[in-house]
Amino acid sequence: MKTKATSRLGAWLAILLGSGYFLLPLIATFEFSLKMKREGYSFEAYKVVLSDPGFQASFGYSALLALLTIAVGILLVVPTAFWVQLKLPQLRPLIEFITLLPLVIPAIVLVFGYLRLYGSAGWLPFTGSERGTDLLLVFGYVTLALPYLYRSVDTGLAAIDVRSLTEAAQSLGSGWFDILRLVIFPNLKTAILSGAFLTFAIVIGEFTLASLLARPAFGPYLQLIGANRAYEPAALAIIAFLVTWAAMGLMQVVSRNRAALGADEH
Fold this sequence. Notes:
By secondary structure, the protein is mainly α. It has twelve helices and no strands. The protein has helices at 2-33, 44-51, 53-86, 92-104, 107-118, 130-158, 162-171, 176-187, 189-205, 208-212, 218-228, 231-265. Helix 7 crosses helix 8 (176-187) and helix 11 packs antiparallel against helix 12 (231-265). It is globular, with a radius of gyration of 23 Å. The chain starts with a helix and ends with a helix. It is found in: Cell inner membrane; Cell membrane. This is Spermidine/putrescine ABC transporter permease. Residues 59-251 form the ABC transmembrane type-1 domain. The chain crosses the membrane at residues 12-34, 59-82, 94-115, 135-153, 191-214, 234-254.
């Protein structure tokens, strides 16, 4: 009995220490962001930031690129994971290793490789135009998000009977495109949305690729404001934190709703 009580006390102590480690700096940042006016606390820093055209333009730009990254990533990952699961299970360890490489290779190495291959003097000069650079940045974001998106989709595929669903669809005369569109994608909604929210959070806060490719993204804007102002960077940090956790919260809501619907069906 004493051992169980001690274990429970140790668990709560670890939770309190961990919460303090993460929450105290956040609370201090939030409290500092409210001190822009000398007479007391106010949300003036947030008002200044949210009304700044630079904030609106950079956040809108990053949000658009996040949506494009999600679209490209889903079109790349879902058919690949489906085909590996169905026809090439022996290649699964290799595919998993490849999708983990962005966690090992620093983003700065990745972007210098892009500049070497796709610079204005490269064989495919993406950086020769703004739209080409934007496209290159989307490809870079897809690479950074690949470990998270692939694992979400792969987990979703493991939870359904891919082979039986595919054989049933083929027996009804469906081709591969219809199988993906009408069978696989609908059954992977939760997994795809989970990967999409993670991808959105990654793109919104990314700095290295956007900075070195000289694009007006939200990450470089955060750095620029942080280098030149006092209270606005703290407000931006809180806003970025809320955006990230909103994406994570939506992911949890979608997952729970999906699980509840599955339980009701059973």
